[in-house]
Amino acid sequence: MAAYARGVAHVRIVRETPLSVAEAWRRLTDWERHGTVVPLTRVTVTTPAPSAAGTVFVARTGFGGRLGFDDPMEVVAWQPPHRCRLVKRGRFVTGWAEFEVRALGAGGARVEWREELRVRAVPGALDPVLAVAGRWMFGRAVNGLLRDGS
């Protein structure tokens, strides 16, 4: 069986929203809500509120039971309402995610979301495919989190 070096997929998403910086931040850091916008995923926060550096949560993705995987994450940088960085500490998915929220000149906010993903057992040659899938999935998630009425 051939061994593959674990590669890295880079994802970058930029969105502008009419929401205030504070409201965009609130929606992006409502960890449990991420499970409502990421298909087949449930998010559980495992540390006491409020969120801060050291907050840990687990995104469970799958079809229930044993057909899935856990993606545990820890907040390692917390600078409300502008910057948050997470480290992914799973056995299947590792890497980091970071987002920044900045004010737009005419009102509203600009969100920049970046991820660096490593997926166990996925050869580095598939990093471009993983990056495209990540842009679709995380872009959809950011859109859902920022959507009006959320």
What structural class do helix, strand and pairing data support? Answer: alpha+beta
Main pleated-sheet profile: 7 strands, antiparallel
Alpha carbon gyration radius? 16 Å
Shape: globular
Helix content: 10-25%
Strand arrangement within the widest β-sheet reads 1-7-6-5-4-3-2
Number of helices: 3
Mean pLDDT reading: 90
List SSEs in N-to-C order.
EHHEEEEEEH
Low-confidence stretches: 1-5
According to DSSP, the number of beta strands is: 7
Proportion of residues in extended strands: 35-45%
Describe the 3D structure.
The chain is α+β, with helices and mostly antiparallel strands and 150 residues long. A seven-stranded antiparallel sheet has the order 1-7-6-5-4-3-2. It has helices at residues 21-28, 31-37, 127-146, and strands at 9-17, 41-45, 56-62, 68-79, 83-89, 93-103, 109-119. Helix 2 crosses helix 3 (127-146). It has three helices and seven strands. The protein is globular.
Per-chain topology:
Layout: E1 9-17, H1 21-28, H2 31-37, E2 41-45, E3 56-62, E4 68-79, E5 83-89, E6 93-103, E7 109-119, H3 127-146
Characterize this entry briefly.
The protein is 23% helix and 41% strand. It is α+β, with helices and mostly antiparallel strands and 150 residues long.
Question: Keyphrases for this structure?
Answer:
single chain; 150 residues; alpha+beta; 7-stranded antiparallel sheet; 3 helices; 7 strands
